[in-house]
Amino acid sequence: MAEQDDSQEKTEEPTPKRLEKAREEGQVPRSRELTTTAVLLAGTVGLFVFGPFMIERLSSIIRYNFSLERDAAFDTNLMISHLTGSMGDALLSMFPLFGVLLVAAVLGPIALGGWLWSSKAMAPKFSRMNPLEGLKRMFGVKGLVELVKALAKVLVILPVAIWLLVSMQQDILELSLMPIMPALEESIWLSAWAAIALSAVTILIVLVDVPFQIWDNTRKLKMSRQDIKDEMKDAEGKPEVKGRIRQLQREMANNRQLAAVPEADVVITNPTHFSVALKYDPEAMATPILVAKGVDHFALKIREVANEHNVQIMESPVLARAVYHTTDVDDEIPGALYMAVAQVLAYVFQLRNYKKGIGERPEKPRNISVPKDMQFDP
Description:
The chain is mainly alpha-helical. Helix content is 66%, strand content 6%. It contains 15 helices and 4 strands.
């Protein structure tokens, strides 16, 4: 009993099959902090790269809006088109930055866990709408971890944010005294540097959160020894199922062989334990082929089918055993048995002609020569 309880503990690392199944279900490690940091860093880089372009475009929008004629200011239709054009230009000026942020928002989640499209994960689950399950998530271990992470982010980012405001206080206040264009340019650079500082701080959180997410996901996927045994059993197949499959395969193979017996030219028997059915068409085959073989009960079935379809049956224990042990179904007989099989087929073909009224009745071969290395003990 103690061993059974111990075997049920989730102490084993997940197998590749378990990991693959979890991935199909959408269960892979993800880090929200990694995505947030990626977006912040991308936004910062975007501000530095596209900052001059954005300043130039926004400056032209400001000049455009402050250079209206008096009549245009009182024309409702003109003001609407003026506003629409300004909004379009503003969006166009922000488009490069938005594009960078979009790429970061897509690449951030797949940086940990890779690209994943799981229909099972997207399927609606009524358990998610269950208030009790929601409370369990809120007040469970995971909820506690998320709370600790949120507090840690506040405790780490807040001091940096305060330090940034204090250190940039003079620069921020001076913006009100500067002309519009220089003030706009300076505000963008201040924002960029502030974003760099905050992004650098979030990297510290990512360095803690990513290993934790990987560890937590692995912990959830851990297996017991019994789970591994069951998985191996399913992969290899249960013994009773495998036995049934082998039985069906044997039955199918036997039925296929029995269906080929009526086309055979001769069935050579032991006479009771072995039966082999041979077919030879001089015009289409280089050598005779084995179309069916069997022992004991199946050997009897071969003889019954041969009798039903008037296939010649000939007793030759040594040759029957030799063909059975050296030749697979649908294969050509080995060269060492050519002479022995030729004797049998010559007799069968001559007997077939005699029954048609052609030639004399042949004598059954008495001493069929089988090489010693092809002889098998009964």
